[in-house]
């Protein structure tokens, strides 16, 4: 399962984690993605949507 939102395209971001002694290691930040049933073109469809899109009402959930 890829960690990306089907609505806004938000995905994994990579960066560097620093320890107390300032040693570096690579790390990732993943978005909070949920599988939801949404209405797309009048039919229910399963989408992977980030919680920001869910809260802002960018999709209409299927019942």
TrEMBL record:
Annotated Gene Ontology cellular component terms: ribonucleoprotein complex; ribosome
Keyword Ribosomal protein: yes
Superkingdom of origin organism: Bacteria
Pfam families in the cross-refs: Ribosomal_L28
GO molecular function, one term: structural constituent of ribosome
Gene Ontology biological-process entries: translation
UniProt keyword terms in alphabetical order: Ribonucleoprotein, Ribosomal protein
Similarity field: Belongs to the bacterial ribosomal protein bL28 family.
Name of the protein in question: Large ribosomal subunit protein bL28
Organism: Clostridium grantii DSM 8605
Lineage of source species: Bacteria, Bacillati, Bacillota, Clostridia, Eubacteriales
């Amino acid at each position: 399962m890829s960690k990306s939102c089907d609505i806004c395209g938000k995905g994994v971001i990579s960066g560097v984690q620093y320890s107390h002694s300032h040693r570096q290691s690579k790390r990732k930040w993943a978005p909070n993605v949920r599988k939801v049933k949404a209405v797309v073109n009048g039919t229910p469809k399963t989408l992977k949507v980030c919680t920001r899109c869910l809260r802002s009402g960018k999709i209409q959930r299927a019942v």
